[in-house]
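A protein record pairs a chain with a discrete description of its three-dimensional fold. The shape at a given residue is found from the number at the same position. Here is what such a record looks like in full:
>
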Amino acid sequence: MTLSVTGTAGKAPRAQGPMWAATGLAWLPLAALVLASDQWAKWQVLSHLTPYRSLPVLPPVLNFTLLYNTGAAFSLLDTGPGWQRVLFTVVALAVSAWIVAMLGTLKARGQALLAASGALILGGALGNVADRVRLGHVVDFIDAHWQTYHFWAFNVADAAITVGVVIYLALHLAGRYGRGLVAQGREAREKEA
């Protein structure tokens, strides 16, 4: 693909390339990177760790422990009879399709953080879907803890989803997407004045 510059008399030149490059779809490589990193990390863990045996990484706070999660985030519904795997796969694919559609409506540069948050969530969702389809469960291995208290085990996909959601919520609350709380507060103050 070549990128050309065109312009008309009296107007600044503008870059022309594939139409998707000007949209949030330009952030799909980030989703692919998250998916690839997640699957590579899980492949390494499956190749080198024994299930349920901890490998200390930073002994006071972090272990790698191979665990299998048949449920959702934080092992929600992991003791179900198996229907939850189909449900979580269908929901994740539907959310992924919605995110791709949303990315197509965003501006690649003007809404970069929003697009990046969507790409992080997309890559993470697809990473966990790949596990459910291929293995029948999600591979978790990051075991954050403090002394004897252990947070729920998670993986690279879960971390990407969490970061993406935090960015999305921060943008929403800051009024950078839609009518966030800050924008609503500003409008209320202007009405009072």
Residues 20-158 form one domain. Confidence is low (pLDDT under 50) at residues 1-5, 180-185.
